[in-house]
Amino acid sequence: MSKLAALRDTVERSEPRRRERREKSAGAETQEPGNTRDTEDRGKHKMDYIQQQQQQQRQQHQQLLRLTRNLFKCSLHTPLAFAFDLWTMLVSVFNSSITPTFTLAGFRALLPDLPLIIVATTVASTLFFTAFFFIVAALKSRSDHSRIPKELPFVGKNDKEWFSALRANWRGWFQSISLYVQGYQKYSKNGKIFVVPTWTRAPQILLPPSMATWLSMQPEHLLSFPVQFKYTVGHPHILNNDMVELLIKRELTKTVGTLNEEIIEEIIKSTDDLYGGSETAGEWRERYVFDSLARAVGRVVSRVFVGAELCSNMEYVNAGTNFSKMVSISSYILHLFPEFLKPAVSILVTLPSKYYARICMKHLEPLVAQRIKDMRAKAADPTYAWEEPNDYVSWMVRESFKRTSETDTSVYNLAYRIVMLNFAAIVTTTIACANTVLDVWSAPDAEEIVEELRGEIMSVLSETNGVWTKAAVNKMHRLDSTIRESSRVSGIGGTSLARQVRATDGVTLPNGFVVPHNATIGVSMDGIHFDPENYPDPKKFDAFRFYRERMEGGKRNVDLGTTSSKYLLFSHGIHSCPGRFFAINDIKLMMGHLLLNYEIAPRPRREPNISLGDIAIVPETATMQIRRRVKV
Ligand code: HEM
C-alpha cells in the first residue's frame, strides 16, 4: 500500500469512530445533570460524563499522534504533500483540536498520487545541491588552505587524509575550543605561531601572547577586522564613517553614570514585566535566561540610544536583537562560499536581517526626522516649547548639523547608524548578563556568592541613600569581579584580536615572519584565559578571584573595563571596544537590581556554552526559576 493510501485509510477508518464519539458526547451533554432524577444518579452520571470526556481527549491525542506519524511518512512522497503536512501540523498545534486536522488531511487524501516525475525531480535536485555544495566547500577550503605558509604547524589537520582541508575545517567548526587550547599549550606557550582551521573563514594564524600587544596596535590599513558587512549589511558609506565611534567615545562614555536614574527606571519596568513586580512577590516563574535578558537589555540600552518612548516598543527592541543575530548567521553562511558567489548568495541569506532592519527603520526614521525638526526649531527660537532629550539621537543630530555630506545628514543614514549601534551593543551585553546569571546560580557555592554580592550592594547603596551614582557603581568591586570572572570562563569566543592582512605585500611580525596578504591572524583567547600561569585553577568559576587580587594582591588594574594581553573580552589596544564602559555600567545595574529584588533558584548544572567555530553561544534553551523577593 502506498504511503498516501495508508493515510487515506487512516482517515477513512477514523471517521465512523469520530462520528460515534461525537454522537455520544452530544448525548452526554444533553443528558447531563438536568435529565437525572435523584442526587445519587446525578453524581454517578457526572462521574461517567467526566470519565467519558477524559477518554475522548485521550483518544483524540492518540489519533492526532497516529495521524501525524502517517503524515510525516507521507511527507517523503512529494513536495506538495509536504506543504500540506506542515500546514496540517501547524493548524493542529495552534488549535489544539483534531477537527481541522481531519478536514485538511481528508482534503490531502483526495489528492491523486503525484507523478513519479515530481518525486524524481525532488530527489535529483536534492542530490545536485548536496553535490554542488560539497564541491564548492572542498574547492574553497583547498584554496584557503593553500594560502597558508607551509612551514607553519597546523593543529587539527592531517595532510594524509582524503579531503584533508575540508575535514580540518569540519573539526574547526565543532572542536574549536580544544584545538585553540591544544595549539596554545604546544606552540603559543613556547613563543611559536600555529594555524587552526575554521569551517567558515580561511584557517587562522594564531600568534603567541607575547605578540598580542603588537597586534593590538596595528593600524587599519595594515590589519583590519575580518567582517563581511559589504554583503551582510551593505551601506559602506555609513560603516566606513567615524560618527558612531566618535559619539560613543565623546558623548556616551562621558554620560556613563549620569543617566543611571533613567536606566534604573527602565530596568524596573522591564524586569517587572518579565519576572514580576512586587505584587507577585513569592511566586516562582520560569523564564529563558537569554531571551528574557535580551528583552530587558534591549529596552535598557535603547533608553539611552532613542529615548523613553521608543525604548518600550517591543516590536522595535526585538527587531534590533533579531537583526544582530541574523547578520551574524548570514555572515557565517556567506563565509562558506567563494568570493565570486557571495553577491548572488547574499541576496537570499540576508533577507531575514533586511526584514528586521526594515522594522527598526520604520520606527527610527520618523523619530530622527522629528528630532531634526525640533532641534532646528529650538535653535531658531529658544522659546519653542520643547525640551531636548539627552540621548544618542540628539547627540547624533547635533553632530550632523556640523557636517555637510549626504552620508552624515540624511534622515535614512542617521537612522541606520542606530541600527548598527544596536548590532554592536545589544547581543554582546546580553551575552555577558546571561553568562553571569548562569555561572553564579549554577556554582556549587551560589548561595554564599549571592549573599556576599547582596551585602556589598546594600552596604554601598546605604551610603548614597539608595541612589545608583557613578561612584557607588564603581565601588561594587565584588560585583565587578563576578562579571569579569564569568566573562573569562564563559566568554564570547575562542580567539581575539582577529585581523585580516590588508597590506598587499603582507605584514611582517615582530619575529620577522611575513604573513601573506588576506590571511587572518589573531590570538587564542581561550588558551590565554585558561592558562594556569595567568589564572590558577583556570577552569573554576571563582567569582571573587579579581576582587581578591585587588584587595590582597594590591592590583588596581583588574576591573572589568581594563583590557590587557591576558584579558581580552573587549579586545585590546587601539581597537578595544569603545562601548565597554557604557556596557559595564548597564550590566552592573541590571545584575544589581536582579540580586536585590529577585531570588533565582540555584541551578543543578551549568549548561555549557556552544562553541561554533570561533564564537561561543549561550544555550538559548537554558531556563531559570525566578521570583520577586518578599521584602521584610
Ligand atoms: C559586554 C558587552 C560588549 C562586549 C563583550 C564587546 C566586545 C567587543 C569586541 C571584542 C570588539 C572588537 C574589537 C576588535 O576589533 O578587536 C568590539 C568592538 C566594538 N564595540 Fe563592543 N562590546 C560590548 C558592548 C558594546 C556596546 C554597548 C557598544 C556601543 C555602545 C559597543 C560598540 C562597539 C564598537 C563601535 C566596536 C567597533 C570598534 C572598532 O571598530 O574599532 N560595544 N566590542
UniProtKB/TrEMBL annotation:
Its cofactor is heme. PROSITE patterns: CYTOCHROME_P450 (PS00086). The keyword Transmembrane applies. The chain crosses the membrane at residues 74-94, 114-139. Keywords: Heme, Iron, Membrane, Metal-binding, Monooxygenase, Oxidoreductase, Transmembrane, Transmembrane helix. Signal peptide: none annotated. Residues 9-26, 35-48 have a biased composition (Basic and acidic residues). Residues 1-55 are annotated as: Disordered. Belongs to the cytochrome P450 family. This is Cytochrome P450. The lineage of its organism: Eukaryota, Fungi, Dikarya, Basidiomycota, Agaricomycotina.
